[in-house]
Design goal:
single chain, 8 helices, alpha/beta, about 300 residues, four-stranded mixed β-sheet, about 20% strand, CNF1/YfiH-like putative cysteine hydrolases
């Protein structure tokens, strides 16, 4: 089993004033009110913009939450989506989201899908846990509060342009190998080669805080075999699972090169001041988003 380097990026927050951060009715918050979490690896790839939103104390009515589901304030969440997209240079009206079901279903996004699930009340693209595209314009987004965010970029080669993907991988999606399914769809639809893909495993709940039952341990052991110990720690009746390590195993098996994978060392539960965490803050906590988009360069792709 090849090892993948683990890195932790720190991102600062620039606060303009308390009144700006606490008033979610103000849609034109300066773009430097918030700074998204970004990967050094993906930031080095031209033509693609990406980032993760975060929990920011006092931002809007729910600390920067961008999830629409009850009991969250949907209008405030839409305002937050606008703030975060502005900070990344993305168009909030072009967001594409899905109804996440902890599975392995992948949706191919076309230009016509831009805006599906962006605003409160707009229809999402469908049910699933992964979005992929090779077209400029749509802003792919998944929502998280401990589950693993995965950002994928195929830089493209020759006449083949870039392709991107974003994945929501909880334990069920992980043992279902949603990352492998995503790469397979990108290969079939866009000609992506796994060895060319650059992948970032963003902040998620860490092994330190993720106690799981025997059902999870057994499901992972069945799929991982001899590599199960890379992500699963067993101490008597206690099982601790690392979503990040597990998805790194699956990326390795899919053929992604070690040098092209980066892992965040941030545990969302440990760092609950800056990240929404279902385990740490309860089921009604907010959601942070993983966003990625191909920048419009005037090239029309199939």
């Amino acid at each position: 089993m090849r090892r993948v380097k683990s890195v932790s990026w720190s991102v600062g927050l620039s606060v303009q004033s308390e009144s700006v951060l606490s008033d979610s009715s103000t849609p034109d918050c300066p773009t430097d009110c918030v700074v998204p979490w970004q990967s050094e690896l993906l930031s080095s790839i031209p033509g693609v913009s990406h980032g993760l939103t975060r929990r920011v104390e006092g931002l809007g009515r729910a600390h920067g939450n961008i999830g629409f589901s009850a009991p969250r304030d949907r209008e405030d969440a839409w305002t937050m989506r606008q703030h975060w997209c502005a900070a990344m240079g993305l168009v909030p009206e072009h967001l594409v989201t899905l109804g996440q079901i902890h599975g392995r279903d992948v949706h191919i996004v076309r230009n016509a899908h831009a805006g599906h699930g962006a605003r409160p009340g707009s229809a999402q693209i469908g049910l699933g846990d992964s979005l992929v595209t090779n077209q400029a314009g749509p802003v792919l987004m998944t929502l998280h509060a401990d589950c693993q965010p995965v950002l994928i970029v195929d830089p493209g080669a020759g006449r083949r342009g870039p392709a991107i993907g974003v994945v929501h991988a909880g334990w069920r999606g992980t043992v279902a190998n949603v990352v492998g399914a995503t790469l397979a769809v990108m290969t079939a639809a866009f000609g992506t080669r796994a060895e060319d893909a650059c992948v970032v495993l963003g902040p998620a709940i860490g092994r330190c805080c993720y106690d799981v039952g025997e059902d999870v341990a057994n499901a992972w052991s069945e799929i991982a075999g001899a590599d199960a110990g890379d992500a699963l720690e067993v101490d008597g009746n206690c099982h601790r699972f690392s979503l990040t390590a597990a998805n790194a195993v699956l990326l390795d098996r899919a053929g992604v090169r070690t040098a092209n994978v980066e892992k965040s060392a941030i545990c969302t539960k440990c760092d609950g001041d800056h990240w929404f965490s279902h385990r740490g803050q309860g089921a009604q906590t907010g959601r942070f988003g993983a966003m990625i988009s191909i920048l419009d360069d005037g090239v029309v792709r199939g």
